[in-house]
Amino acid sequence: MINIDILVGSTLGGTEYVAEATQPFLEEAGFSTQVHFSPDLTILNIEEESIWLVCLATHGAGDYPDNFKQIVEQINNISDDLSNIHFGLIGVGDSNYDTYCYAAKHFDLLLHEKGALRLGNIFNIDVVESPIPEDQIEDWIPLWIKDLNSLAI
Q1: Could you tell me the residue range of the domain that residue 82 belongs to?
Q2: pTM, entire model
Q3: What CATH number corresponds to the domain at position 52?
Q4: Number of domains comprising the chain
Q5: Other CB atoms within 10 Å distance of the CB of residue 54
Q6: Dmax of the chain from CA atoms?
Q7: Residues 6 or more apart whose Cβ sits within 8 Å of residue 118
Q8: What is the pLDDT along the chain (153 residues), one digit of tens a residue?
Q9: Rounded-to-integer distance, Cα 98 and Cα 100, Å
C-alpha cells in the first residue's frame, strides 16, 4: 500500500481540518496516510519515492505558519534534490489580502527548485467564500486521486 505523508502548516487550526478531511478519501482509494502537524524533514524519507500532500495556510503578510517554518528551512538548506517526491498542494487563505495563498505558492516554487514534481494543480481554498474550508475537499480530492493513480510507484 502506498503511503501519503500529509504535511500541515496551520495557524488557527482550520488547515488541520482540511488535512484530516482528505484522509477518508485517500484511504477509501487504497492509500495509507500519515498526518504531520509539525512537519520535519528528518523523519520523512526523501531517499525513496514518496508522496506528500501539503495543506498550507498563509499567515500574516504572506508568511508560513510557525509550525511549518522548520521544514521550509530544512528544505532550503539541503543539498540533495527532492526528485523522489511527488506532491499535491492545498493552499488556504483569505482573498481579501493581496498575499492570498502566498505561502502555498512560495512552497510550490521551493519544491520545484529542489526537483520535486507536483501532481495536478494547486487547490486554493478561499475562507471568504468557504468559511468551513474542509467542505471544499470533496470537489478536488477525486481529481488528485486520479493523478495519484496515474503514477507508476
Answers
A1: 3-149
A2: 0.95
A3: 3.40.50.360
A4: 1
A5: 27
A6: 41
A7: 86, 87, 88, 89, 108, 111, 112
A8: 789 999 999 988 899 999 999 999 999 999 999 999 999 999 998 888 999 999 999 988 899 999 999 999 999 999 889 999 999 999 999 999 999 999 999 999 999 999 999 999 999 999 999 989 999 999 999 999 999 998 865
A9: 5
